[in-house]
Batch of 3 targets.
Target 1
Amino acid sequence: MKRLAEDVYMLKGWPPNAINVYLVGDVLIDAATRQGEKRIMRQIAGKTVTAHALTHAHPDHQGSSHAICEKLGIPLWCGQADVPAMEIPGSVIARNAPRIVKSFQERFWIGPSHPVARALVEGDEVAGFSVLETPGHTPGHVSLWRESDRALIVGDVLTNMNLMTALPGLHEPPAFATPDPARNRESARRLAELRPALACFGHGAPLRDPDKLARFVAGLPAD
Ligand SMILES: [Zn+2]
């Protein structure tokens, strides 16, 4: 895994940066798809991991959550409004996703439901970061912010990769997977205003350019 900042590591994956998992202090942030279990377990072997938190309960972030929480005997945390998605079987997938995407995700990505031990809300502390409620992509989407070095775990409020072509670049998350795009845009504006020195995305390489982030967000349509 790669060190990005103090106590912030990005796990390796293939293709690189496509579906990101972070170890922040002793908390595993996101758990990729069901296919990600082995690569995650291999990389965190020997590390102290005491909890697993999700930025949001989507199939490409919660796929290995159940397996990893069971194996390590650690609690699962996620944003309050995403608790039902994580706990009620069959509710993870985006309702308005195209059928082909749904069936692919069901076959290869979605992990089992799992009880949430701690529902995260604005201002909570996770491994030295503060929880920011950043809804829109999911109702309970959260980002993590550490003021001292301006490090930000973005989640999927924005991606730094085109999810169709895998080319680098800032984008809004796909509309079919974002039930409330206007609200997500508000969340994106809030994150850009923080001027993060380091932004870590759910998809795409880390970005150390707050101006680029601000310019991208300023160019988004006003709702
Ligand atoms: Zn995602």
Note: The CA atoms of residues 32 and 208 lie 23 Å apart.
Target 2
Amino acid sequence: MTDSASTAPAHPGLPATGRSTAELLADLAALRAADLPTRGRRTTAYVYDSGRPEVRAAAEQAYLAMLEVNGLDPTAFPSVVALERQVVGATAARLGGDDATPGIFTSGGTESIILAVKAARDARPDLTDPELVIPATAHAAFHKAGAYLGVRVVSTPVDPATFRADPDAMAAARTDRTVLVVASAPSYAHGVIDPVAEIAADAARRGIPCHVDACVGGWLLPWLADAGAPVPAFDLSVPGVTSLSCDLHKFGYAPKGASVLLFRDEAMRLRAYYACAVWPGYTVVNPTVQSSKGAGPLAGAWATMQALGEDGYRELGRAALAATARVIEGVKAIEGLTVLGSPDATLVALGTDADLDLFALADESRARGFFLQPQLSVDGLPANLHLTLTGVSAEGVEDLLAVLAESADAVRPLGPPRPPADIVALLEQVDLTELDNATFAALLPAAGIDLSSADGPARMAPVNRLLDALPPAVRELIATRFLSALYSPHLGG
Ligand SMILES: Cc1ncc(COP(=O)(O)O)c(C=O)c1O
């Protein structure tokens, strides 16, 4: 046996003998070198930084203190119930409910939405073909909930100028099979609040529940209203709104894995729950999709809320609002760039009125240190670049505008995005479901994607241009194939 054979681990990925914490943390730091920064103001999607080290420290320590507590059984770990009551109660109190409002702490917006759809579906056991009516701008989580739960999603066009839901189109789309209608406050893609009162009133007249997706706005809009922003009523105070989701891991600035789903009444919450006694183990009764779950995210959310307090959130909201106003103003001075619609919160979609290649612009901005999230065109809604502005954005807003201006200058000579017509045609013909991962991975370089680069593709514009030129169903197939290839160690490099 050679030396290398004797030291090679028997199980790849698992060392033969345990390693020190210092080594492990060094590994993680090395791996994270290629990640986007999670703090500061340069990553304008995915992360929410309060900019307050003492708040983060409180959350981290609370998270660790509850790391091993299992939310599977609240009678074994009553701390979970006590914390959840506080977190849900605080959320309800700010969002048109009170301390009697039933709620569930979930792992995120998607889980809250899946549970809201489940509760609505299960309220109508008489229907074999339930439907969900959404505006086209509703979050993808509703499509996911529909797919998971066997509820057909009926998507309705939004106003092409304001990007807000069209209550008449939604009213026209509901049928006797509609189990739930949806409004966003605000939508993620354009940051605008749908006409919640009209949508909910129409639903109520028909006896249909109405869910408000306030995942991104629920813990932001009330503080913006305090800061003087005109925020229309969107929460449980609006007649006809029967459930609402509010993510604390967004503008609650809590560590990830934290959302609250509120219900108008207890009967609806009961339908979100799941119980199973037809197996020989412990009786399962779960409020969430997850069964065993650490109480870290709950404790982290609780600690963040407690450490920031009302004045902390109010100050962060005021700062985010000021940053947003400055971005909207500053973008007007950049030739070729526009803001889509009139954002009601602190999320902004940057479009173009001069056919700029926005995907190339995102790459240019990233090369200059600012990450902007590309959003592809769909349903006649134009492609754009997403910016979520948070409490820490204000300090960097002039840098951001300078980077946007420079990036726009850099891409202006390129003209409009030019997708590779031959590859678009090829991908529209190939049956992607028939390809194995290796063949799929071999196609990627032609689209400008290099799976062997640990740093991820430096330039995403070729990929985005290509995807944008393809129908959504083909995009979905490519995206899932890409993910599968990415997670295949022999292909991922
Ligand atoms: C309006 C809205 N709904 C739902 C979600 C889904 O949330 P999550 O990513 O936590 O599952 C998001 C996420 O950005 C959102 O903005």
Note: The two ends are 28 Å apart (CA to CA).
Target 3
Amino acid sequence: MSGCIHNLDDMWINNIKEQQISTSVLVIGTGGAGLRAAIELAEIGMDVLAVGKRPRHDAHTSLAAGGINASLRTMDENDSWQQHAADTIKESYYLADPTTVEIVAKGAAQGIADLERYGMEFAREDDGRISQRFFGAHTFRRTAFAGDYTGLEIQRSLVRRSQQLDISILDTIYVTDILTHDNRVFGAYGFDIGNGTKYLIHADAVILAAGGHNRFWRRTSSRRDENTGDSFRLAVEAGARLRDPELVQFHPSGTIEPEDAAGTLISEAARGEGGILRNALGERFMERYDPERMELSTRDRVALAAYTEIQQGRGTPNGGVWLDLSHLRREIILERLPRVYQTMLEVQMLDVTREPIEIAPTAHYSMGGVWVRPEDHSTEVEGLFAIGEASSGLHGANRLGGNSLIELLVFGRIVGQAAAEYSSHLSEQIRSEAAVASARQVINRLLASHGTENVRTLQRAIRDMMTENAGVVRNETGLKEGLARLDKIEERMSNIGIHPDIAGFQDLAHAYDLKSSALSARATLEAALERRETRGCHNRSDFPETDAGMQVNLVWSLENGITHEPVESVPPEIDKLIREVSLEGKLVE
Ligand SMILES: Cc1cc2nc3c(=O)[nH]c(=O)nc-3n(C[C@H](O)[C@H](O)[C@H](O)COP(=O)(O)OP(=O)(O)OC[C@H]3O[C@@H](n4cnc5c(N)ncnc54)[C@H](O)[C@@H]3O)c2cc1C
């Protein structure tokens, strides 16, 4: 009986059509990075196609709240791009690439000017200057913003500009493979999540802007099915390498329930406005970790403190701590923390003016990513570029709040130009039928999988493993156990069942998400094991000190495992500006 159904399934699968399209530059990802690059290409007059696996207006970038950095000097005239660079390098625990940092800090004002040109509504002072606020470990006020929805406003502006330029954007294309021949890109393969149509896209150059890899911890500020490590797998299988995949920033305050929204961010503004952290015993536990700054301590310290309370048995029954706002005046909460108020009502029906929020550290941002050259974000695969959270080089072991959004703007422009240049000078391109056949075959094979393992269950197994073995604090025993657990999960992955139906091919997309997460998890565990030190976001309980000998980037590839890559030295003009920055009264979203 079931065999009969499978045969029918298989016939149907073989009849799914394949669409072939061509473009000069293909952009994978329609978040801030991808759209900015596509806009640059279109403005140059280059043929460009952008594809994403979720609607462009709803990309992860739209979640960003706090702001975007540039030393515009609208509030503090002593600021400079050099000081922005110095603050970024200090916050990266000296793992950021100084050239990348310089390019972003120097190009940031242009990035903001571009957004203004696209019609972005920044918050402004009465005299019309763009307002800039203090954010994290910045020496000066240099974070521009639009209310507490900066990312949404950026995304809207980029979508609007793409519409004006009539850029081709496909919102439901899942890219499964980047196609290469002889280490040179010739396009990508994928399918339509809605109707399963396979897509063979020929392109001279490919810009990978498909986000990071933080959705495979149990609690994460990424929503379902985003940041599943797609960029990492796509790049690595095409022949590129990853840099510092172990460096993942944990934000101190993510929600715990409901399960499918676990990790939703509770803005640091909640602590900034006077929120108090307590453990299950009712103790204000920050007294133990940072008695001076208490709840206003740095993000990594608060995350580590909450984690320690939970680990040592003083956590709530659900494995969290309490963030209490109920002592604040209701009007203050409604006026200054509207998103926190609204979010908690929506996800838990909890009124934060009366009851505390149960929170725990949440995986938030991938500092590591695809290895790229600082000047143009090209990879070691000819014609393949990577940008945004998919890439690496700017943030090192800790991201300076507000630097991610500006990175999208600066490198979106530069990489758009570089890809256009590459395409214009490409004298010939050889394609590989074998590469196309292989990509097509993997989809067909997956669609014909009728195994007993459920993809969602295995995704959950990876999330459990990463949380228990490679969370806020790591050690050798746990990481090795994590790798052993991953081996078993990968064995089970060979027996999955895929069940697309009339509603769509999401099941197939989840299977690829799972593949990407498994590869990215392996890279993360192996690099975390290799980084035998504590530095920034990376806490090793068995190596609690920072090791000067480990001031290197860990570069990971399928073929060669991990190699140590020295970090360029900081130019003297920047080095002399590096100093301790007081965090008093500042927030670090
Ligand atoms: C709650 C929150 C608040 C934040 N606040 C700030 C802030 O104040 N300041 C700051 O600088 N940063 C902030 N960040 C970080 C910042 O928002 C992100 O790092 C940034 O937006 C990433 O942009 P991106 O374009 O690289 O990727 P994304 O916006 O994640 O876009 C990735 C794109 O790739 C597509 N994609 C992925 N896989 C595939 C595939 N296989 N096939 C096809 N398409 C694919 C997706 O559909 C999407 O279009 C915040 C993040 C969160 C979650």
Note: The chain is about 40% helix and 15% strand.
